Amino acid sequence: MEGVRIFIANGPEIKARLGAVPLRLNRAMQAAMQKSVDVVQRRIAMNLTGQVLHVQTGHLRRSFLQPANISADGSMAQFGSNVEYARIHEYGGTTRPHEIWAKRTKYLRFGAPPYVFRKMVNHPGSVMPPRPYARPALRASTEDIREIFRAGLAAELAKT
Length: 160
Description:
2 domains, 5 helices
């Protein structure tokens, strides 16, 4: 699965300094992580609404809106896409030569009138340039994520 991983680099250090982290602090970390995931997912969706890639079906954009896996202590979250073309759009790459067959109709149609009709064509493969949408969304969200954690943890620690 191609995805995004958010983690607090010094999460174990923070926990060690705080000693036995109370359950509610874990809940605050999880809540802050979920808010952070929401911010990144919204930015990815914006990038996949025509800013970086042209939208044909919206399948790639919807695939990133699945719930994230958030660790029990809230120091890491992982979410992503299981769409087969997610990786090549993000990082670029080369496709192999392959056959394209008509699936929804009897024939594939090409060109302008007079059209050419084929049941199958041989695609020679192509070189796809990178069109990152997830990495820029994560980078653009870094300060928001820091603030979400600062505010969430400060509010919880103020209660103790």
